[in-house]
Amino acid sequence: MRCTVDLHIHSCLSPCADDDMTPWNIVGMAKLKGLDAVAVCDHNAVRNLPGACKAGREYGVCVLPGMEVTSREDVHLLCYFPTLDAAFTMGSLIEKSQVRIRNKPDLFGRQILVDADDVPLGEEERLLLAASAMSISEIAEAAWDLGGVMVPAHINKGANSLLPVLGLMPADVALPAVEIVQTMPHCVRGKLCIHASDAHRLVDIREAEEACMLELPELSPDAIIAVLRRGKEEA
Fold this sequence. Notes:
Blueprint: E1 2-9, H1 23-32, E2 37-43, H2 49-59, E3 62-70, E4 76-80, H3 84-97, H4 105-108, E5 112-114, E6 120-123, H5 136-145, E7 149-152, H6 162-166, E8 177-179, E9 192-194, E10 212-215, H7 221-230
Parallel strand pairs: 1-2, 2-3, 8-9
Antiparallel strand pairs: 1-10, 3-4, 4-7, 5-6
Helix pairs in contact: 1-2
């Protein structure tokens, strides 16, 4: 089955996202826009995922638990997981690897925590934009060991992106899939390339007509991860 997906959306827990990017608002907007699946990927954090998953069950939208991790090389990496438990295990690992810096909401933005019903719980005090001490290869291995997959984010975008930061595709890391922006760099030919909104506002979530399409045996987090882990199949 061909499914429309937007696998890079930030909730109000990310300091760069609008305050109304609550999990239930995100999933509700995805439903209105005709998407089959979304992934909420906050910066180095997973605590707003329970609400997104609950909203997904209510609205009939597949929600893939995720997070956008910043490696010690200062590269943004999308990590996807089959379950909330796996995502929270990775979240704890990333939090422990960060230098703890207190957020300054007036400078970086608010980091709003909500419960599974979208009720505000307060704000995350640590600055979520701080980089992890883990390398790209360590993050990829940790995600894989948890049954998930790591996909480098917007690799050809600019700051915090794989190609501008490293200047090449790392040879020591298995990268079956990458996220690209607009044009496809020559060096990723042969890999599964996905595109997503990287939405920080509700209006920016992809419409079904412009969303990434994935061929899936079923609509589930496991099926999406299996496709990303497999990468592009040989013709």
